[in-house]
Protein 1
Amino acid sequence: MKRKLPLRAMIISMIMMVVLGLTACGTQTSESAGTDGNNVEYVIRLGHSDTDENLINISLQHYADWVSEQTDGRVLIRLYPNEELGDNTTMAQQLITGELDAMMMPQGVESVYAPEIATLGLPFLFTSYEQAWAVVDNEEIAADLTKGLGDYNLIQIAFWENGMRQITNSAKEINTPADLTGLRMRIPNDKMTESILKTLGASTTVFSWSRTYEALEMGTFDGQENPIANIYANDIAEVNKYMTITNHKYESKNLVFSKSTWNKLPDDIKQILQEGAVVYGKEHREAVASAQEDQLKELKEKGMIVNESPDIEAFKEATRTVYTNFELQNEWTVDLVAKIRQIISQIP
C-alpha cells in the first residue's frame, strides 16, 4: 500500500514543481538544470517541427553543444523536435506569450508577423541556393524582411534553411501545371504556398507535418511539397511514389526567440547565442544543399520515380498571377523584389 504524503509535504512538492517549471523558460536558477555539471544558469527551450534525424536537428545539437562550451555550461539549450511542443503555429503563439523561449520558425508562419518575409517564397524567384543566401545575408534586406516581429514579442537572431521545395504525390507523374489539377495536397501554414498550388489547380489543406506521413499513407492526401531534405528525413518515398523537381519556392527556417526570454539574458550570453546561430545556420544550409544529390539517389533506390526535367517554363507562366496578386496586397512588394533581384543579378 502506498503511503500518503502529509499535507505539508504535498504543498512543498507542488511549490517545487511550479519553481522547476519556471526555471525551464530562460529564467535564471542557481541549481543545475543539466545532467553533467552544476553551472547551468539559463535553460532555453527550443522547439521545431522536424525529426531527430533531420539535418536541422543535427545542426541545432551542434549549436547547443557550442553554446554550452562557450558559456562554460551556463546555458543549456533543450531541443524539442518533431512538434513535441505543438505544430509551428502553436509554437509561434507560445513565443508571443513567453511560454516558449525559441523555435525554428518557417517563413510561412513568420510571414503572419513579418509579412515582408513572404517575398522570399515568390515562385521561381531564385534559381540557386547561392542567390537566396546572398539575399538573406544582406543586412539591409534581412532587416526589411523581419521588421514586423518586434510588435509580437519576437526577435529573429539568424536565418537558417528549409530549402528549395519539390512536389511529391502517389497518383501520377507531374510534368506540367495541368497534371496538378484536382490533386489533394497537404501544405504547411503558408499563404504563399497555398497561393502557388491553388493557382496550379491543386486542392490544398493546411495540415501538421508530423502527421503528414500517416495522412499520405491513409490516402487523406495525394501529395505534399517540401525540400528534399525533409522528404528524405520523413520517409515520404514510402507513401508517395512520384517526385517532381520544380524548385518552385525557396523557404528559410529561422531561429526566433521570444523577447520575454531574450530581454532577460545578459549581453554576453546574447552575443554568444547570436554568433553561434549565424555560424550553425550556415552549417545547416550548406548541409541541406550538399546532401541533396545523395539523398535524391537514395530516394530513387527506394523506388521513388523522380522527374528532374518538368516543363518549368509552363510552371513559371502559370504562376505569374501570384506576383500580381502579392503586389496588389502589399504596396512594398515592387521595391523589395527589385532590391532582391539586384542582389541576385550579381550572383553567377
Note: The longest strand covers residues 163-169.
Protein 2
Amino acid sequence: MISRRLAAIFALAVFFGLVPAAAQPARLDAQKIADGVWFIPGDASKGYCNNIVIEMRDYLIVVDANYPGRARELVRQVHQLSPKPVRFVFDTHAHRDHAYGNIVWTEAGATTFAYQGVADEMDRYEPERWRQTAAVRDDVRSLNLKDAPRPQLLFRQSPFILKDATREVRFYFLGWAHTRGDGFVWLPKERILCTGDAAVNGPRNKLWDANIANWQRVLTQAIAFRPLHVLPGHGDAGGPEILTGQRAFLHDLYATVKQQIDSGKRLAQVVPVFPGRDRNWIPKDPRQDVAITYAEIVQHTPAGALPHEWK
C-alpha cells in the first residue's frame, strides 16, 4: 500500500514539474521521400552533412557516417523511423563530415563500407586531417583516437548491390569527381539517387581534392540514371536539377578560367564570369574556386593531385 502511494505521489510530482522526467531523444527531422526512404537534413551550423536512411526487409542502411556528434544523435533517434537495426553505413567519400563518425556506428553494431577509393583517400591524407579536426571539434576529440577510422568493408567492382525481397540498392563509383572515391547510391525502382558531395544543392562544395574536368563527366553519367529524386550531401533534397546545376557551374567555372588563361591572364587578373544559371552554386567569394581551377588547368593535373592542404 505504501509503495503504491509513493508511486502515485511521484507521478503527480513529475506531472506538475517538481521532479524532472527522463530526457527523451529529440524528434528526428526526417523527410519521407518514398516508402522506407528518408532524407535527414544536416545542421550546417555544426558542420553536419545530410543523411539518408533506407529500409530493407530486416535492417536499415544509413548513407554517410557524418561527424561523431551527429552519428551519436542518429544512433539514438533512428528508431523513430523504423525499429529495425542499422546494419550498414555507407561512406560516400572520405571527408570528415561524412566519415569521421564511422566508429560510433560500428560500436552500435553496424558495418561501415565504401568504395576502395575512400580508404585510399584516407591513407593519403590521414592522420593529419584527423589531428587538425580533433584540435577544433569536441566530438572528434572525445573519441581519443589518433587516426580516422576506416570503413570496414570495401568494394572495387561497381556497382556493389544489396538486395532482398523488398528493395534493391546499388552503390556506384563513376569516377574521380569531388574526391577520388565518390560513391553514389541508386535505388532503381524508386529512381532515387544519393550523391554525397559529388552534387550539392547550393554553394556548399569545396574543390581541394577534386578532378574538376572529370567531375563534369561523372555528373553526366549520374544524369543518365534519370532520377526522380536527388538527395545531395548538403542542401535541400530535390530533383535532377541538382545534378544539372552542379555540372553547369563546374563547366562554366572551368570555361571562364580557361578562357582567361588562354588570353594570357595570370591568376591575380582572372575575373570569373558566370551565367545566370549558376546563381545557386556561386560562392560569395569565388576566388578560392578560381585559384584551384587555375592550378588544375595550368599544371595539366587534377587539382586533388597537386600539393594542397585542407582548410
Note: Residues 6-22 have pLDDT under 50 and may be disordered.
Protein 3
Amino acid sequence: MADRISESRENFRFQVVVVTVGAILMVTKFVAYFMTNSVAIFTDAMESIVNIIAGIAGLYALFLSPKPADKDHPFGHGRVEVVSAAFEGMMILGAGLIIIFSAVESLYNPKPLQQLDYGLIIIFAAALVNLAVGRTAIRIGRRNRSQALEASGKHLCTDTLDSMGIIAGLVVVFVGMRFGYNVAWLDPVMAILFGAFIMTTGARVLKGCIDTVMERAEEETVNKIVDCLREHRHDDWIDIHALRVMKFGTRYVVELHATFPKEMTVGQIEDETHELEGCIMDRFGDCIELTVKAEPCRDYSCRLCNRDCEMRASKFISKVEWDEDNMVQKKQHSLQDE
C-alpha cells in the first residue's frame, strides 16, 4: 500500500512538471508564430494548448485516482485516468481539425513569411525540451502503471516528432527563399499533413481508452500471470481457467477459477488457494487485487490429473499445458477441449 501511495504521488508531481513546461513552451511557440507568420509553427503552438488543457485534466485524474474504494466506487477511482486520457484524445483530434482549417485558409490567403531563422531556433529548442519531458513521463507512467501520465508522455513525444518534421520542412522553405524560389506554399501544406498526423494520434489514444472501458485484456499482464502460474504449478492444481484481468488506474483486478481435488478438505483447499494467491502477489505486489474461486474436480478431470487418488474415475492421460488462450476459457478443461 505504501508503495502504491508513493507511486501515485510521483505520478502527480511529474504531471505538475508536464503542465508547467507545457505552459512555458506554449508561450514560446506563439512568440515564434507571431515572429514568422508560419502556419506550420502555428500547428506546433496549437498542440501546446492541447498539452496544457489535457495536462490539467490529467493532473486532476492523478489526484483523484489514488483515492480508496468506497460504497459508490467499489473498485476505487482509477478509471478516472481513462476519462482523462479520452479527453486528451478528443482534444488532440480537435486541434488537428483547427490546424487543417487554418492551413487551408492560408493556402488561399497567404501571409508573407519572415524571420524564419529565429523561429526555427525557438521551435528546435522547444522540441528538445518536449522530448526530454515526454520520455520521462512515459517511463514513470509505465513503471507506476499510470495510463494518464503515459498518455501525456506519448502526446509530448508526438509533439516532438511534429516539431522536427515542421523544422525540416521550414528549413527547405528558408533555404528556397534565400535562393529566390517561391516555396512559401510548402508552409500550409506541411501544416495540413501534420494536422492529419495529429488526428491519427488522437484516434489511437481514444482507441486505447475504449479498449480499457470494454475491459480488453492486457496481453502483457495476462502473459506474466500465466508464466507465474506455470512456474509454480504442482499436482494439486489440477486446472486453472476463467482468467480475467481488468485495469483500474494503477491497479489490476484479477479473477480466476482453480480446480482442486474433490477429496480435499475445506482447510486444504484454503491452504492451496493461499499458496496460489501468494505466488501471484509475490510477483506483482499490492497493485493486484486477486480473487480465486475454488472448484472441485469432475470425473473428466481425472484424465488430466496424475495424483494418487482413491476417487479416480478414469486413467491419467496427460496434463493440459496452460497458455494465454486456454486459461481465459470459462469452463474447466478436458482433453476434448484441446
Note: Residues 219-337 form a domain with the Alpha-Beta Plaits fold (CATH 3.30.70.1350).
